[in-house]
């Protein structure tokens, strides 16, 4: 028999499913093999972000609940009050606080600790400084505090508040580094002398209204940016490609300019004798100059100007991918041009509108320079007070608490947005 007529040995045929799944398995294996290489590529960026971005933020946020100032200045008092719960403390606590006041003054930490105590209860700073002067007088007169009973008697003689349990309650809470005082103050509450949480008066705390003002200004700015950015981006998406590049460059040039320079330019344009009022009055649009500077109007104008690119760019990326044939097809089927635009085109741009609006809103929440330079006293946003407590009054704990408040409020808002974005009418119904 010739080799041409010889039959090859029978080989069992492989199932079709095995042949079809072999290639995807190989691709998955190659993909898994590429994971370590990809991790090595992003490792420098991840390390940089962890060291220079995440770590400083976490370190700042811990200041909102961790304040060891009083604990460092009054270590013996903290030890003496460790087991005390109610009533006046034992005489040993009086002797410990007297020694701590003298030693803290010598170390230069008494003033800071007294200021920290004064945040919890008004008058604590004066009490500490008065006690320190009395202890100096006793030392100069040669009458040291020989026993704890002597210390208790002299402190109460210096100020009757040393015999009040509320004074010791304040001191007992302050010598514990873990504290909720700053977080409570950020939401306009405080701990009373007896340990209960009470709301501050309108004169003492105003951070919750400031947070509401911050969200309100950001919401107004976002609405105006969407109203102006959508038609601008729609017109930009309909232009020929060469003109698109030119208009997009005109939008981006202000984006590349320093924010401080742009705000200073508005300080020249918006005054009563500025360009806007001169043009408006020359065209008889109004009879007297408008107040556009050092109020909320100037803040909103400058923020809208700064944040429009944040709306145009993501929206343009969505609009340029929508074929114009969809609208023409709807019109050819009998739809009105506006109906075709509203029911066919606009729903497809919703992801770009949502992304741009969220980006603008979150960016507006943290604005500091525009309200500080163009706004009045009632137009400052929460970031202004964070900067104030960080740079001026050096109250890092309250600055961290306000930052945490703004971060949590923004995160909750973002969570609500995600829930609304995931919701669909009719979801969960059986079709």
TrEMBL record:
**Primary residence:** membrane
Q: Which GO terms describe its biological process?
A: transmembrane transport
According to the record, the residues making up region (Disordered) are 1-31
Q: Does the keyword Glycosyltransferase apply?
A: no
Basic residues bias spans: 19-30
**Subcellular location(s) per record:** Cell membrane
Q: Which family does it belong to?
A: Belongs to the binding-protein-dependent transport system permease family. CysTW subfamily.
Q: Where are the transmembrane segments?
A: 35-58, 215-235, 247-269, 299-318, 353-374, 394-420
Q: Which residues form a coiled coil?
A: none
Q: Which UniProt keywords apply?
A: Cell membrane, Membrane, Transmembrane, Transmembrane helix, Transport
ABC transmembrane type-1 domain ranges (all copies) = 211-417
| Species annotation | Caballeronia cordobensis
What name does this protein carry? Answer: Binding-protein-dependent transport systems inner membrane component
- Record's Gene Ontology CC terms? plasma membrane
- Membrane topology for this entry? Multi-pass membrane protein
């Amino acid at each position: 028999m010739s080799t041409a007529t010889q039959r090859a040995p029978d080989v069992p045929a492989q199932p079709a499913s095995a042949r079809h799944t072999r290639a995807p398995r190989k691709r998955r294996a190659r993909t898994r093999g590429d994971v370590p290489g990809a991790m090595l590529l992003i490792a420098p960026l991840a390390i940089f972000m962890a060291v220079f971005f995440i770590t400083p933020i976490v370190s700042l946020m811990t200041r909102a609940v961790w304040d060891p100032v009083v604990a460092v200045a009054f270590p013996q008092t903290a030890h003496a009050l460790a087991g005390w719960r109610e009533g006046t403390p034992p005489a040993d606590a009086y002797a410990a606080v007297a020694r701590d006041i003298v030693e803290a003054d010598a170390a230069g930490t008494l003033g800071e600790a007294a200021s920290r105590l004064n945040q919890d209860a008004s008058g604590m700073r004066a009490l500490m400084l008065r006690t320190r002067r009395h202890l100096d007088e006793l030392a100069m007169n040669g009458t040291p505090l020989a026993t704890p009973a002597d210390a208790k008697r002299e402190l109460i003689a210096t100020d009757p508040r040393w015999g009040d349990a509320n004074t010791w309650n304040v001191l007992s809470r302050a010598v514990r580094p873990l504290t909720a005082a700053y977080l409570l103050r950020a939401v306009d509450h405080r701990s009373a002398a007896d340990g209960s949480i009470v709301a501050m008066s309108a004169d003492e705390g105003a951070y919750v209204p400031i947070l509401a003002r911050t969200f309100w200004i950001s919401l107004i700015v976002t609405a105006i940016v969407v109203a102006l950015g959508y038609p601008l981006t729609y017109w930009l998406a309909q232009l020929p490609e060469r003109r698109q590049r030119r208009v997009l460059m005109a939008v981006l040039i202000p984006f590349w300019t320093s924010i401080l320079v742009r705000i200073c330019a508005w300080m020249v344009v918006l005054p009563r004798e500025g360009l806007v009022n001169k043009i408006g009055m020359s065209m008889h649009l109004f009879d007297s100059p408008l107040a556009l500077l050092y109020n909320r109007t100037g803040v909103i104008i400058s923020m809208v100007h700064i944040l429009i690119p944040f709306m145009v760019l993501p929206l343009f990326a969505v609009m340029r991918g929508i074929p114009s044939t969809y609208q023409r097809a709807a019109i050819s089927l009998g739809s009105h041009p506006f109906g075709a635009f509203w029911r066919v085109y606009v729903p497809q741009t919703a992801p770009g509108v949502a992304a741009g609006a969220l980006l603008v809103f979150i960016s507006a929440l943290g604005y500091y320079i525009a309200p500080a330079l163009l706004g009045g006293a009632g137009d400052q946003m929460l970031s202004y007070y964070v900067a104030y407590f960080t740079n001026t009054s050096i109250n890092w704990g309250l600055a961290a608490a306000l930052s945490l408040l703004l971060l949590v409020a923004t995160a909750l808002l973002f969570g609500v947005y995600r829930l609304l974005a995931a919701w669909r009418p009719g979801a969960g119904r059986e079709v």
